[in-house]
Design goal:
- By secondary structure, the protein is an alpha/beta fold.
- The protein has one domain.
- 42% of the residues lie in helices and 23% in strands.
- The protein is built from 5 helices and 7 strands.
- Strands 1, 2, 3, 4, 5, 6 and 7 form a 7-stranded mixed sheet that branches.
- A hairpin with a 5-residue loop joins β4 and β5.
- The termini are far apart.
Length: 186
């Protein structure tokens, strides 16, 4: 009987651990899709519908930007939330984005860095030679409020030979759905 109880306990723990990881993955995946969709909806109509086929497979980490955001988090966050965000922003490390997370082709962060090896000049010619006329996104991981009901994500968009553009998105979870509350370009 004890062996059966131990076995059931182990199976239950494994199941619950799997469910927790899957929920985190599903939340990030949903938020990543929302950010890309909202960005393309807001900005691509203005720019003649460019094509961005790729997502860098590693989350954006920009120490200077994150420090600036940590000092002045937007008004959608309480004081406690701002402290929580500040801690997450200042301790952010790159994380891999899993294949199938979003509806974009993944491109390695190292591949992008190797194309910059000779500087910005000629980058787009090298990029187009390898990936065609397209562009790429880079996303931060979601930074959550203390109760995980509100989050901030940064999207960096690079295409058509233009320098990168960064946009901050604020989402709030309402009725089990993430709704955009604000966005602003940096």
């Amino acid at each position: 009987m004890k062996t059966l109880f131990k076995t059931l306990s182990v199976v239950l723990c494994m199941f619950l651990a799997g469910c927790t990881a899957k929920t985190e993955y599903d939340t990030n995946s949903l938020l990543y899709d929302n950010v890309i969709r909202d960005y393309e909806k807001a900005y691509f109509e203005l720019e003649g519908n460019p094509t961005v086929d790729y997502l860098v497979n590693e989350t954006l980490t920009d120490e200077q930007l994150f420090k600036r955001l940590a000092e002045g988090s937007p008004g959608y966050f309480t004081k406690v939330d701002k402290d929580t965000l500040k801690s997450q922003l200042l301790n952010a490390k790159p994380e891999k984005i899993k294949s199938g997370t979003v509806h974009k082709k993944l491109i390695g962060a190292g591949d992008i860095e190797s194309l910059y090896r000779y500087g910005y000049k000629g980058f787009w010619k090298r990029f187009e030679g390898r990936y065609g006329k397209s562009g790429y996104y880079r996303l931060s991981k979601p930074f959550f409020s203390k109760d995980r009901s509100t989050c901030m994500i940064i999207l960096e968009s690079t295409y058509f030979g233009l320098p990168p553009t960064k946009v901050v998105y604020i989402y709030r979870k309402e009725d089990d759905k993430w709704d955009i509350k604000s966005h602003y370009m940096l």
